């Protein structure tokens, strides 16, 4: 699975930006949930604005997965992707500052190996 490798490349690129632009900051987090029926990542300190979300689900039947981004004011960004397709990324705009929760679920309660991530600059 190349999800971690791609996220590491992004983190490295963001590190270069932070090193060359004083006052800039980057943040986010990622989580791997093996053999799970859902996966939830919570990240504090989001400054508000644009959020990039990454997800992957493998090792299970080809079903549709629901990905939700939630904040204290409710559900803000929703999309779907298929199990066993290549890792995907989305951009969510106008997200309020604070704690971010990224959740993946599948309606038929099958277990998958999930990887989810959220990042910002």
Would you mind describing this structure in some detail?
Strands 1-8-3-6 form a 4-stranded antiparallel beta sheet, with helices on one face. It has a 4-stranded antiparallel beta sheet with strand order 2-7-4-5, with no helix packed on it. The model is unreliable at 1-24 (pLDDT under 50). The chain is 15% helix and 59% strand. With 121 residues, it is mostly beta strands. The protein has one domain: Jelly Rolls (Sandwich). A hairpin with a 2-residue loop joins β4 (64-71) and β5 (74-82). The protein starts with a helix and ends with a strand.
Summarize the structure in short:
The chain is mostly beta strands and 121 residues long.
List its salient traits.
121 residues, Jelly Rolls, disordered N terminus, 1 helix, single chain, 4-stranded antiparallel β-sheet, mainly beta
Per-chain topology:
Elements: H1 3-20, E1 27-36, E2 38-46, E3 49-58, E4 64-71, E5 74-82, E6 88-95, E7 98-105, E8 112-120
Antiparallel strand pairs: 1-8, 2-7, 3-6, 3-8, 4-5, 4-7
Tell me, what's the shape? elongated
Q: How large a portion of the residues is in β-strands, by DSSP E?
A: over 45%
What is the CATH architecture descriptor?
A: Sandwich
Biggest sheet layout: 4 strands, antiparallel
